[in-house]
Fold these 3 entries.
Entry 1:
Amino acid sequence: MITAENATRLGQYQVDPGKSSISGLSSGAFMTVQLHLAYSSRFCGAGIVAGGPYRCAESFRAAAFLAEDAFEQSAINLCLNPLLPQTAPNPEHLAQLANATAQAGEIDPIVNLAGHRIYIFTGSRDDVVAPATVNCTRRFYELLGVDRKQIAWHDNIPAGHALVTDNPEDSPLATNQPPWLNNGGFMQSHAILNHIHDNLQPPADRATGRLLRFDQTEFFDGDPRACMSEYGFVYVPSAVENGTTARVHIALHGCKQGYDYVNFVYGRPDNANQPPYGNRYVTTTGYNTMADSNNIIVLYPQVRGRDDDFAQNPDGCWDWWGYSSPDPGRPDYYSRNAIQIKAIYSMLRRLGG
């Protein structure tokens, strides 16, 4: 078993400050929005594939008697699968909530978002995160001052719930099942990076840099509440290792896509049936070849499944409804105080971004 003891320590490089970017799929897309707003001064853009708006799980706080149950019910019934487009999250309300959160000093000032470029995608065959919810994400960013011309909006491709690739071994385009990577004839990671960043070179024919695994535990002090894996991954182009100035892109996997994901049965990990696709988000999604020809460091933080007194997260999702908050009735998952957001931001700072 590979553990943090035989993983490397995340290194530091020459990085252009304020030019970093972030993208994610599904729970990674929800986390992308949260991290983007929490540290908008550090980013220039974001890519959101099948993700909802900021603090989406708090759309209807009266959904249940207990606050933590209300957040989960809102996440499931309003954010993921609203019965009608009219019952999807209210972007006006969530934009007001984002502004109030910034005024309280819990996230960076909203004004930072004005010049950012945003890529937003929903597959028309997605039956996991409803297109109506993703459309709310587009409207949410517009309400926060992002110019429509800066938002690349895609909703006309018959894709299921997945990051789209051109890998023939990935699932058919309309599929809605793990590993949540579908072959649609193009690399969505390339489209994301090309929209966010100007004048990128075409991807390299093959990645020639180094894909490193590093100890993640130092960034969350080994706290089990973080629900983060023992190590993460980072791709570093060879030119960057030799001193060339770089940018950082953070790529966040979705549920059931972490390297150490296992199915949970009756609250226990079923290690005998561990899926065989745990590192494909890191190795086959096309980020690394695009990074290689454009001096981009790609950071792949990892979250794991957990179903116990510390966290109820059996599917290994990033926290966008509050399972990692120390007080379930007063969640902090969306702020700079959130344990996962602090950990990822600390990784970005270590890299130099």
Entry 2:
Amino acid sequence: MAANWTDFVANAVLTAAQLNGVLDNFQDVAIFREEQANNTAGGTFTSGSYVKRVLNTTVVNNITGCSIASSVITLPAGTFAVSAFAPAAEVARNKVRLQNTTASSTISIGNNNSSNSTDGYNIANLTTVFTLSVSSTVELQHRCGGTIATYGLGLPCNFSDTEIYATIVITRIQ
């Protein structure tokens, strides 16, 4: 049984191009994420308040009325299921939230995390379902307890391929 699980996990990793090809057959899915060139860190993470996470790549977007510009996502009215993930390195306590910037309100707050100050790394995440009565803009935001320059928002792997940091998966369910 373990071998089958291992095979499943090994085969579950898809490239953006593969995901786009598969998800083009489905409606009402959008995946946005931060991609950087090989060996490029995620950036400085400054403590004190929530910061907007960079989302600079559209993997797929089949939600009519959904768009992204400058890491701000526009969603039409409807009900959505969202999962979001964002790394943090050596910044102590941290968490993500999904913020409705049109209404200046928090849609959801992710789980508590901590990455220690010596080679500590974690992935903050949130999962939620919410309804928008009108078209609105939303941001994936992240807050930390300790400032780390250059790589606080993510350590590069330097494996000669794209570095991927924050990711948000949106499914319109109604």
Entry 3:
Amino acid sequence: MKLYSGPLSLFSRKVEIALHEKGLPFDVDYVPFTQDEGYRPKHPAVLAANPKGQVPVLQDGDVTLFDSTVILEYLEDAYPTPPLYPKAPAARARCRQLELYADEILMQPIVRLLYRTESAHPDPKIREQRKQEAQKAEAALRDIYPRVEGFLKGQDYFCGVFSAADIGMFATLHHGLRLNAPKLDANPALAAWRKRVGARPAFARIVAEMADADRKLSHPLQP
């Protein structure tokens, strides 16, 4: 099994966490990446597999897949033990929806913080515009955090037991926090969940690897 990944790609790192949680051996190829140029030049294997030219791309024998959600669901079908999704249809659907929430809702304001690890833009007007957008994004995240905390329903994990929903939520929240998103101090249950999940070996490993990649690839954080 081979995974084409990005050192700071939260979607690729989601897949890596899932592979580690399932105990599956895999080779990883980190494609070329810089903060200012992005994923250029595009890796030919990624271009061949994904029309969008984005990581992650997973090759498992004759199967080649892109998109982290599709890959996680494939891994569950092909390698069901240990499970990353509940068995009951309603619980399974909720788990999928929570992972989608992390990717599509929680991620929206975080996108406006991505510039913080790039070189400062030479145009002061654009720098100021980005700063104002970041302030709006931080306000949006402060509104979203209580909703995400509510999804826990007082449980240790989003779906009662550890699942793909925890992988997706953790990956997105961690991506925001490394970009100086608001901390979780006002949301103690969510902060405790993050600490609990982050202590799992698969998560701790990826967090450490991303911190090392940040030291090598990221510029000092912008405001």
